[in-house]
């Protein structure tokens, strides 16, 4: 793995957006689909903004893009303002030309009986497309990537999980209280993410500094699931100065 430290998250996000755009264009030139793994949360917002700008101002087309989002709360209605389905459409999909049928986001409305098979099928669908060409990640204070909380197996697939208390505390403000934060979620697995050909993890701000130190410099352990990325051959941590402050 390697880290790139930018003085601002803005500059860093634009750089990542350009890598994604270049990948999409190189796939277009070969008449291939580009399979993107996407994240929600505050970290990637500026990346999506830049991709939207490139679509509107530079004609970047997403017609050959197939996307798979990392996670969704469970249960969760698609049209809820708290859903990751809503987030992705607000920040990206409503503003670009990705075909609606190419968008995959774990559904927070599948029945508990269907959930297990649904998750297996999500991974199979990624495999059917030849795997993820690029996976964008953020990181939670627990060391989660997607919603792979501490204890997640390095080879885990897409599945339902119980959210860590710290994760629910961090989500509480936007839900107007922790009691409103779902206790469960569906997440791509560590194994799913690690099969991506390229991974970029974004980390901004001082509140990510200590978990980034553990992730980048700590021992590989299920206690900090993001440490599994140390074993991935093509991962870059793109972080800003504040987030890098505890690195040696
Ligand atoms: C979101 C996701 C999470 C977030 C992480 C950081 O799809 O998978 O792992 O990336 O919780 O969230 P922010 O970016 O809001 O700090």
UniProtKB/TrEMBL annotation:
Keywords: Hydrolase
UniProt key word Hydrolase: yes
GO MF, any single term: glucosamine-6-phosphate deaminase activity
Highest taxon above the source species: Bacteria
Domain Glucosamine/galactosamine-6-phosphate isomerase: 9-236
Keyword Hydrolase set for record: yes
Protein name according to UniProt: Glucosamine-6-phosphate deaminase
Native organism: Urechidicola vernalis
Included stretch of the parent chain: 22 to 269 of 637
């Amino acid at each position: 793995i390697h880290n790139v430290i930018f003085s601002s998250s803005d500059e860093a996000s634009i750089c990542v957006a350009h890598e994604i755009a270049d990948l999409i264009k190189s796939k277009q030139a070969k008449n291939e689909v580009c399979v993107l793994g996407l994240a929600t949360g505050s970290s990637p917002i500026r990346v999506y903004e830049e991709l939207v700008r490139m679509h509107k101002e530079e004609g970047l087309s997403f017609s050959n893009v197939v996307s798979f989002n990392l996670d969704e709360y469970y249960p969760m209605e698609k049209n809820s303002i708290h859903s990751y389905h809503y987030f992705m459409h607000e920040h990206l999909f409503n503003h670009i030309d990705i075909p609606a049928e190419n968008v995959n986001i774990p559904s927070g409305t599948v029945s508990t009986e269907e959930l297990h098979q649904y998750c297996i099928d999500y991974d199979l669908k990624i495999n059917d497309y030849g795997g993820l060409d690029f996976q964008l990640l953020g990181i939670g204070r627990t060391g989660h990537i997607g919603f792979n909380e501490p204890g997640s197996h390095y080879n885990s697939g897409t599945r339902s999980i119980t959210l860590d208390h710290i994760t629910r505390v961090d989500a509480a403000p936007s839900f107007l209280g922790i009691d409103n934060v779902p206790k469960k979620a569906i997440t791509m697995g560590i194994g799913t993410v690690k099969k991506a050909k390229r991974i970029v993890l974004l980390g901004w701000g001082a509140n990510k500094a200590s978990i980034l130190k553990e992730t980048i410099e700590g021992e590989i352990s299920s206690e900090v699931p993001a440490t599994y990325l140390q074993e991935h051959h093509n991962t870059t941590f793109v972080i800003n100065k504040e987030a890098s402050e505890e690195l040696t």
